[in-house]
Fold this sequence. Notes:
By secondary structure, this protein is mostly helical. The chain has one domain (17-102). 62% of the residues lie in helices and 0% in strands. α1 (17-24) packs across α4 (51-68). The longest helix is centred in the middle third of the chain and has 18 residues, at 51-68.
Amino acid sequence: MVLIMNNINLGVDIVLVDRINKILNSKKKSRFLSKIFSRSEISDSKNRQNQSEYFSGRFAAKEAIISGLDMTIDQGLKLEGDLNFILQTSADRSEGISSFINKTTPNYYGK
């Protein structure tokens, strides 16, 4: 069996946990969850300590795949570089590194 893959694309997405947390604490929660996530994902989230982080990661993965469907490798790598730059200069990144070094719980603000 020979598998030929054309137009392998790359999708990258960053979702700020605070953005998802706001949705999960709003009237939009039920519609958001049922539209974006499977019953299995919603059920699995109930066993998670931090649902905002859980759903943020899953949402980012889904967005990356969707983006990847319309991008070439070069476009995807450029986007990844751009997003990496944004991520590396965020206040949340600094908070995460500081918390890791000091062995404390980070306080992310979506900035």
